[in-house]
User: What shape does this take?
Amino acid sequence: MARRYDTVTFLSDYGLADEFVGVVHCVVRDLAPHARVIDLTHQIGRHDVRAGALALARAIQYVPTGVVLAVVDPGVGTDRRGIAVEVAGGEGVLVGPDNGLLAPAVAMAGGATRAVVLGRPEYILPAPGATFAGRDVFAPAAAHLCNGVALEDLGDEVDPISLLPGIIPVAREEAGDLVTEVLWVDHFGNAQLNVGPDDVEGWGSRISLRLPHSTRTATMTSTFAELGPGAVGLVLDSYGLLAVSLNQRSAAEELGLAPGDAVRLVRLDDDAGEAAVVTPVALPLRRQ
Amino acid sequence: MARRYDTVTFLSDYGLADEFVGVVHCVVRDLAPHARVIDLTHQIGRHDVRAGALALARAIQYVPTGVVLAVVDPGVGTDRRGIAVEVAGGEGVLVGPDNGLLAPAVAMAGGATRAVVLGRPEYILPAPGATFAGRDVFAPAAAHLCNGVALEDLGDEVDPISLLPGIIPVAREEAGDLVTEVLWVDHFGNAQLNVGPDDVEGWGSRISLRLPHSTRTATMTSTFAELGPGAVGLVLDSYGLLAVSLNQRSAAEELGLAPGDAVRLVRLDDDAGEAAVVTPVALPLRRQ
Amino acid sequence: MARRYDTVTFLSDYGLADEFVGVVHCVVRDLAPHARVIDLTHQIGRHDVRAGALALARAIQYVPTGVVLAVVDPGVGTDRRGIAVEVAGGEGVLVGPDNGLLAPAVAMAGGATRAVVLGRPEYILPAPGATFAGRDVFAPAAAHLCNGVALEDLGDEVDPISLLPGIIPVAREEAGDLVTEVLWVDHFGNAQLNVGPDDVEGWGSRISLRLPHSTRTATMTSTFAELGPGAVGLVLDSYGLLAVSLNQRSAAEELGLAPGDAVRLVRLDDDAGEAAVVTPVALPLRRQ
Assistant: This one.
């Protein structure tokens, strides 16, 4: 008997309009009544593996010990593999398709210690069609893990190195500028970039942003409320990255920003030491 | 003391913007703290009893032993009856309005073994208005069933035959064609028809679809990914029915399909035996 | 050791598209595994403190004994205070920002018996940025309360009188008319006014409504179904207030009503005694 788990943390692109998410809950409840299912979100864009992978990577440090069930699965029913990946020596197991969805979260959790390919019929729900692997393959695997079924009993072990990697875009320097990418636009319209405050250390409190449709000067800050009306901020967000933001308005909407867009950060002449003269309202970057 | 239950599976058209769903959870938690509530979905179209009935019927085989709480209730406050319907000799009890919402799920679960009409004041929450029966009538009934209150104590028994039946459209043959109906359009834009692969057995791997706005040739398949870009599929879905689908795009949106639309399936001349010649990429229908 | 709680009832403006709500669930699960989290709603309009306060006030009488976690927090990261407010001598504790969000619910629950300002580092999750107090400050406070941490250990006590009050608009009489305000438009398009049946006692069964874009005669009723096609109702809603409603259609959409809009109720000449003559289908107001 392997370790038992009592929490399944669940993310998908199923949306909430259909009964998909509810049926997955039903399957887990039926097979592992003691397990609690936490919904991370089910509104990942349809088939948007990158967005799902990023959401999971952001959340993973808060996910309780247990099983993660993640399904964004455009290749459902094909020969793409279903996998269960153990991390942190068994503190957690991530279950889902082998399409890069799990990879960034696995990396954030310290890397895979073991992995198996799902597919043993005794752990799969029989179904007339092959289009709902979340219900028929992944949810049962998560539930059986909760019940103490050993990882190696769920499927054949594979070298974690063979799993499809996730692609996280990295910012690059170009002629002294920093070419970044919008990773995520949240519900409030903040556009998270793939750089943190360290990447612009010494640039001063104001930075020029070359956005897809305009160029704006942004103020470095740690709260939205410090931004004046209409002022664009580079706000230190809750994950330690910089987000293009407005106070109580949607920066993404007003500035026309979407995930994947390039944002070029350009150092202003009036940096650091001189900033106080040119921009008397410049705000210090508060580090926490 | 009757049988106790520990799961309430909950479906409604309440949406998630208001606190309706949360308040129902509160009522169940307050009255039956041990019960777990699973949300099937709350985004059934407003007052769309047919859509709610179909969602419940699709899900019911996965719903754990316990109570089902279903509320799509355009007649709330009128003399339409509130009912609790026992199925499978007590394995489950479905609670909701007697407007056909529960009927297809009850049938799928083997039919009603007993039924009562709700209304005993001791099992109803007093409220200033009569518009929120989910909170005041149905949730308390579900909670009291979880606590072991006997079905017959909740209300007067009625002959299950007197309950309003659900109407599930049946496909019909017409001049050798099959006139079907779109039952459901899911989050991914798949349009589920009211026919399965048996209904087109021997028709070959390609079938002509007379859609509301166009005629298309569809390929029978069991996965979305087998479909080429733009190719229309008749995909064997996870409930064993055929769905008009595209790969990673919304068939409903691109072909203009909505629940209730008629889709006429016409047998192509180049069927079965000859298909290989005319359509060299024809895919075999994989049965599972 | 103070009282322990086992339910956290959670409301926010986080929406469900991101993992915000799920991560808050994770934090509570991690710190207080025994606690159940009930989602009231997370679709309060962004930064709409008034709408959040009203939803919480409507729900509070149904919320089980335990902790309420409410986050609509446009001032996150500023010096606005985070608070925990005890009501009913410890039956409940409300946790959230001190911006008026909690105030109407606290009042509905009989007023604050004690309050503390959150901020002790040992009860806060360290985070790189200050923009997600729901995760870092409020959820941990809720979880620690569930675990039996005493209110006074969470922060410095403050006089409840110092907490920011909530603003609930009150209807006023003007030249014999009643000037009301739309408090809430629900999922079904019912526009709840800030008056109940007592406020129009003796006005008869038909009342003239001066709406923002039109004047309509409304029928007092207690069910939607009693309204004929297109007939405007003043329906006694489930919270004991009057709502401008249509049967199975959205009154808010068709009449152009939004929260905050003024609706002037004007007494018709054909009131009470005479109503029966002029309007033979006049419906009695059913009180419950």
Notes: Residues 271-288 of chain C have pLDDT under 50 and may be disordered. The radius of gyration of chain C is 22 Å. Chain C has seven helices and 15 strands.
